[in-house]
Amino acid sequence: MIPSRLHGLIDYGVAAMLGGLAASSGVPPRVRGLLGAAGAYHTAYSLMTDYEAGLRPRLTMRQHLGLDALGGAALVGAGLAMRDEPGEARALLIGLGLAELAVVALSDDRAASGPRLLATEAPAGYPPYDRPKPVTADVQVVDSLLPGPLGSQLPVRMTVLRLPDGGLLLHSPTRFSSQLAEALARLGPIRHLVAPNIAHWTFLRDWQRAFPEAVTWAAPGLRQRRQVRRSRLRLDHDLGAVAPTAWGGVITLATVPGGLGFHEVALFHEPSRTLVLTDLVLNLEAPRLPALMRPIVRLFGSLAPDGMPPPYLRAVIRWRLRAARQAAERLLALQPDRVIFAHGLWFERDGTAALRHSLRWLLD
């Protein structure tokens, strides 16, 4: 018999496969739509099942298997009924449905009492959340959370730099709260907001509303993004090769380019020898991840202590390999003592060596 834990892994594997087939241009449009709906259906009731892979347990394992059987039968029925579709597409539907029914027949209808595949052994992020935590006299971090896949949560981090004039620079602002704003205001006036790449800008508007006098600086190409244009987000200046004079001469900039308009602007705070990145390093700790996600993150190469960016971002950056490699070498030449980034366990010590290891995919 297939135990419930293995059945849960099969469930999400099947859902991912159905989603992949639904995105394939080699599958007829009607069949793609059906496969996409089947994948969403499968994911939804799997999340609601009281077994190791469930997130919001509402259904028993026996009820889950009944829904599995219903979905499998529907795929078989659709394959038989869609006579105007190519034979290969109909065979695909029938084969998937029969495989689903076979898994149902071989599965145990009792859920085991093992650990939840979507549970974490440690907090998903780095509490306390949404409050400044000192790194050095002029460097603070603010740890927060983002919604992740399958109802999980992912850690995200803002870095706060105090400039020589006493003003604060918020790098990659995280979610806004009045309590966080008040805590930061006690450290100094918030004068600069930095969107360091094309992904880390979604919380800017809330900070702009609270601090309209703060200047917003954007990574190259961010203002050209369709989502940004539609949002009508205010971007005051684009960052260039040299840090703005308003930052007091204590920050060195380095931009890592990529394809599809990707640029990540790194900030090196010279007085503290702290390098501030965003997504160029992803270093997720296994205990803070759901068990179901750990093998995926390990496969992606993003598991601590060997964390790298996920494969899709590495591929985007490799589109401009020579320029990106030169930028990475400039980052290492700065010899940072510590490296802070947006997701995962940042490099508190031996920053240069740790960064070199994390960038091995780009340097070798």
TrEMBL record:
Family matches, as InterPro entries: DUF4336, RibonucZ/Hydroxyglut_hydro
Signal peptide: none
Pfam families to which the protein is assigned, alphabetical: DUF4336
Protein's recorded name: DUF4336 domain-containing protein
Organism: Belnapia rosea
